[in-house]
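Action item from last week, closing it out:
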Amino acid sequence: NDGSIVNKILRAENKHEKEYKVTVNKNITQELINKMSNGVRIFNPVTNKYVTTNKCLVTKVNNRTFKIVLTQGLNRQIRRMCEVFGYSVEKLQRVRIMNLTLKGIPYGKWRVLSKSEVSELIK
């Protein structure tokens, strides 16, 4: 419950990795994976301008699900990226921030961070 750590993790300018599992409305093509990986020109309503997203890692999980690792934190970034290619997001789950994953944590629950995890976060 340390606000300074939370702010450090979530601030976009710190460029921390955030990994998401994304399920879309139709089958994923290799072209989508390639284009999403290389950056996508999307509209940023905060600045009222178009911006090209940073390159990112995108991996296909199954026909309609992929994982994406971002270092940016633009408003509704993943949804907007998918919309450019005619996809709509049906399910979006953040599964990792930096070295912290949701693995083994039941929905709606939490756990105490280890000392080594906290040390990594405050570097």
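Closing note: The chain has one domain: 3-121.
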